[in-house]
Amino acid sequence: MTLLDVAAIKADFPILSTTVRGGQPLVYLDSGATSQKPGVVLDAERNFYEHANAAVHRGAHALAEEATDAFEDARRTIASFVGARSEDLVFTKNATESLNLAAYAFSNATAIAHFDAHAVNPRFVLKPGDTIVVTEMEHHANLVPWQEVCRKTGATLRWIPLTDDGRLDLSNIDSIIDKTTKVVSVVHQSNILGTINQVRFLMDRAHDVQAVGIIDGCQSIPHMPVDVVELGADLVAWSGHKMLGPTGIGCLWGTEEVLNAMPPFLTGGSMIQMVEMDKSTFALPPAKFEAGTPMVAQAVGLAAAARYLDNIGMDNVAAHEHALTQYTVNLLNALDGVRIIGPANSTDRGSAISFVVDGLHPHDVGQVLDSTGVAVRVGHHCAWPTCRRFGVPSTTRISPYIYNDFSDIDKAVLGIQAAQEFFGVNA
Amino acid sequence: MNLESLYQDIILDHYKHPRGKGLLENPLASAFHVNPTCGDEITVQVGRNEAGGLVIGYEGQGCSISQASASVLVELLQGRSIQESEEVRLAFLELMHSKGSGDPDEEVLGDAVAFAGVAKFPARVKCALLAWMALQDAEIQAGLLKTGEGA
């Protein structure tokens, strides 16, 4: 099993040397929710504010030029991290906004088409009888926006169900993605189950019926090498803060064709070509989707995060996490009274590992772990329907990253046993 | 951190042996509350007995803190007058918002004083308050309380 040099990596993350709850060393196993930030990311943001801060894409002074260069350099770095052209990379507030931007393209186009059918691309116009396909393991961010699109357009939401071991049940895929389907929007790696889905297959199916294919890459892009073009999607959304970057920045990659065809989401300054009192025309992508003053320092920070990950190598990141996943899954499988929710092996699964403990509520498991300095996520992980599918109200989730090693997993396992002991539910 | 300061024996006892759990046959009103961050659920129902006292029923599922709190609530308030129960409820709210610096009156709060330690854990205060907020909601729906008191 190949692990990264975790001691050296940990030293790059100031927060990981802090103690919590009365002097316990912090064991951070909640990177699925948000990752910690290395010093180079913090330094990049600080350096930008100290030396280059100004409004971008306007102004004729030296700092305005430097800020614009820093912002567009960051876009190139982040685009290249996922194998994309920088013109096809849109910055958003977060992945939720990226997915809403995609969803609103459909409801906005549908609304505009009622008055001017020629003003919009028919691919984005929905009507009753049309279907939108998601999976039963979506994060709420890739579910609720599509429910809203259905409410506004009369389209119907369909979902690909799950097998008991937490994989997509593709046995009836032909009756789920069919000629009525206009959107297929699916998660690459589940944030709750850890499952890695066959997104290329699903995107190809989407294109067979001329549907727009969308991927939620929040849990894949930080954890494995991803070339967004090779995924075969029209749009890929992900967040910055889960890949060592700052909060307040997310990404949406799209093909040139689809970005051009989509109506804008937020409108106002910076996204226009020409404005008159009664109408406007819009800038080309990505500016078309970036209304208002953008998140410049965050983009600079996220670019530093992408460079940091590139230096480690995403293949090495994936191998490291695979080893941790195998180790964690084996230990949890061996614990009496503990059941993994999601694939109980390390095949086609990422490092987000959810489980339930017989007789114990996840909140209480998390509290006991917290008392030993171990930070995990408890709850429904913004995937409430997925919890319901598995008959559990919520789960406890371990989600390690590049700065975790086997000893961190050992501490979590000891904490689970301590919780069983404390509440008297020893199996 | 001392787990025992959070999970006092009284809380664990109510969690493992909930008092008065079950729904009413003819409630005046019923309130279903969830904690959307963790999915804990509670249904609290209210009615009145012949003497005008409060009758409470509940069902729920969730963590030890939320479920023990519901059990303590029922044990404390079952049969009490609306006015008395409101005094207890407001004292419990004050305790939970004290950030751990409260000095709870055991005369008023009974077993609920055990939740003093919970107030030091902001993430768990919502768990402890779940049943109490549902009770207030049910009482308002039943016309036993006016809106907006102590929320």
Automatic annotation (TrEMBL), chain A:
Residue ranges occupied by any Aminotransferase class V domain in the UniProt entry: 27-411
UniProt catalytic activity: (sulfur carrier)-H + L-cysteine = (sulfur carrier)-SH + L-alanine
Gene Ontology MF term list: cysteine desulfurase activity; pyridoxal phosphate binding
GO biological process, any: cysteine metabolic process
InterPro entries: Aminotrans_V_dom, Cys_dSase_SufS, PyrdxlP-dep_Trfase, PyrdxlP-dep_Trfase_major, PyrdxlP-dep_Trfase_small
EC number per UniProt: 2.8.1.7
Residues in coiled coil: none
Name this protein carries in UniProt: cysteine desulfurase
Source organism phylogeny: unclassified sequences, metagenomes, ecological metagenomes
Automatic annotation (TrEMBL), chain B:
GO biological process: iron-sulfur cluster assembly
GO MF annotations, alphabetized: iron ion binding; iron-sulfur cluster binding
Pfam families from the UniProt entry: NifU_N
Domain NIF system FeS cluster assembly NifU N-terminal as annotated: residue spans: 7-127
Residues forming coiled coils: none
Protein's name according to its UniProt entry: Unannotated protein
Organism this protein belongs to: freshwater metagenome
Lineage, opening ranks: unclassified sequences, metagenomes, ecological metagenomes
